Amino acid sequence: MRRPLSAGIGLLITLSLVQVQARAAPVETLPKPIRTSLKTDSIVCSHPESLFLIYEASSIAMAGGGSDAFKAYFAAAGNVFEARSECLVQSQSIEVTVEGYTTINNPLKPEPVVYGRFGIEGSDNKVWATIGNLPAFEKDALRSGLVKSSAQIADTPR
């Protein structure tokens, strides 16, 4: 069953409004870097805003169009960001050291989402992943109060 055009237009309008209002907070340096594994099949991006667009729009697609809409959007968004060398899927679990973090507030949700910044061996550039894909950082953030609940912790949908 196809969704009416108005549902697609509504999704675009919502995404536009969320994108305009959603900006990453200044990067905070962790007092002590946290060594953690990056989960298998995690999406990493050069900018936290790219992760925000992928995950938040995917959740809107899921709510508005169900599982098929979610899968289609998530796959298409991943392809676009990967083609532009902005994001990639890290297919193996690797050890990383989270050095900093930022948050992005979604005006449609009560709590900000947290993103961790780290380097990947062999690259001079820092990349970002959602806190849910960085288990030791997630555990530390819950313990320290940086995040109040798992609702702020997004990870790669399976």
TrEMBL record:
Domain of life from the UniProt record: Bacteria
Signal peptide: 1-24
UniProt KW keywords: Plasmid, Signal
Identification of the protein by name: Hypothetical exported protein
